[in-house]
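Worked example 2:
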Amino acid sequence: MVISDGAKHRLALVIELTKTVFHYSFIPTVLYLGFRKGADPGMPEITLSK
């Protein structure tokens, strides 16, 4: 299977964009999911000030 130079370039751009999006969205996503779930029973409530 032969891939043209234009397709290789577009694929490289898509991969770089995917890496960048993952890099900058991973921690905020984990924090969002943690705040959405809330604290376990018996633990103090999760707030931004703590």
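The radius of gyration is 20 Å. Residues 7-34 form one domain.
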